[in-house]
Amino acid sequence: MNIERLANVLRDAARAEILPRFRRLDEGMVRTKTSAMDLVTEADEAAERAITASIAESHPQHVVIGEEAVSADPGLLERRFGDEIVLYIDPIDGTANYAAGVPLFAVMAAVVRNGETVAGVIYDPMGDDWVMAERGCGAWQIFPDGRQVRMKFADPVPLSEMAGTASVFFLPAEKRRQVLGNLSNVRMNASYRCAGHEYRMAAAGHLHYLMFNKLMPWDHLAGTLITQEAGAHAARFDGSPYLPAHREGGLLIASDRESWDALRREVFTV
Question: Helices 3-13 & 42-58, crossing angle to 10 degrees?
């Protein structure tokens, strides 16, 4: 599927289903899934239906797997699709922010072919712009007026000067305490409760590292490709490449391999 066409599908769904409901979620329009931080709203479900229907209409041969579809049928993640093109969709990344009325959420999609991520898009409904990448073509920020800006990950700096984000929520309690203590070795650590915007910030050169433990494809495939195309080094905690089939093993992204090694050794000793 053409990457520009996919970006517009995400934008259309946001305009039709997400933005009209923002700060207008009545009682019963927000539900808890697995925890108090794992929410789904009527907008998530409506946007995913719209995106899936639009892709199915123009490219019926493609497989579409959305976060909410997997929530309803977890077996979808275990299916093997051979050489089919699979699109992983996150209709609202940062649902907790969205439900709280915080204007920091995104719509994401990744395209996987033959088990490899080949394209990704992160759309910001509030800013009405896209961050996107196709493998081997660099990472770009695209504005509604057609302006395009090539993205570049931050240059390496010493560990003590690094700023980044670490999602420690899914680490075991003891490891979480250890990592939180180790984060005193960097200059700044934050969490924006929205991986999409963390990836956007990093690809634009505003962060030196990203760390995630739980690996769901709709959360990380697009962003990992985008940061790699912006020049970052990305790998699981054991140093192996992150692939669409992976659900565990953690993910660490940094300016280069040397920075990755320093973070892994001094901070993320999980």
Answer: 140
Say if residues 25 and 42 touch (Cβ distance below 8 Å).
yes
Bridge-based pairing state of the strands 209-212 and 163-166: parallel
Residue 195 CA: distances (Å) to CA of 20, 61, 191: 23, 29, 9
Tell me the C-alpha to C-alpha distance, in Å, between residue 179 and each of 86, 104, 172, 211. Answer: 35, 26, 10, 11
**Strand 116-124, strand 30-35: pairing:** unpaired
Displacement of CA 183 from its chain's centroid (Å): 22
Digit-coded pLDDT (tens) for 99-124? 999 999 999 999 999 999 999 999 99
- pLDDT tens string 33-48: 777 677 899 999 999 9
Residue with tokens 């070795």: 185
pTM (predicted TM-score)? 0.96
Q: What sign for the dihedral angle of Cα 230, 211, 186, 201? A: positive
- Residue 85 contacts by C-beta under 8 Å, 6 or more apart in sequence? 1, 59, 61, 62, 63, 111, 112, 113
In whole angstroms, give the CA distance from residue 161 to residue 167: 19
CA pair distance 176, 187, nearest whole angstrom: 18
CA atoms of 122 and 133, how far apart (whole Å): 9
Residue whose C-alpha is closest to residue 248's, from 170, 177, 195, 178:
170
| Domains of the chain, first to last | 3-150 (3.30.540.10), 159-266 (3.40.190.80)
